[in-house]
Design brief:
mainly alpha; 2 domains; 2% strand; 2 strands; two-stranded antiparallel ribbon; flat; 167 residues
Length: 167
Amino acid sequence: MMRKTLLSLALVGMIATAAMAVGPAVGPAGCLRGPLANTPLGKTIAGCFGRVITLRSDLNVTAEQRQKIRDVVMSHRSEIAATAKSVRDQRVALRDLVRSDQADTAQIRAAADALGQAVSDAAVKAVALRGEIAPLLNDDQRATIDKFLTENDAAINAFLDSVIKGS
């Protein structure tokens, strides 16, 4: 489950990064606008953002839960920041190599391996955080998160299927 979550989040991040490189922007009320707005990619990105916004309201987190979750996150703040920075630094290093005229396959593979290790470290830390936060949520809230992940995965899979089929 965590692997699917991380892969989904990584895929959404890659799609969003690719979309931003092409030049779309978020307009009023979070609507995607620009060259991708009415494309399958734009609709997938907008749908993912919409599901995140809906998830937040559907969870109905109480003030007490919010405070406890905040306390957990804040107690690990420096670890979370360091882990996120490592993933970002490795992603940027890989991106820069891919864009370089001098990079060879071995360098690109080494940078991709380093990014994979950073993502692996982040997954291990995420599991530890989940172990502290999940018990703070009730069964309905955990089911809502599961439904969110399933819907997000389905939307991304549908987009990728349409790209593969060329439609």
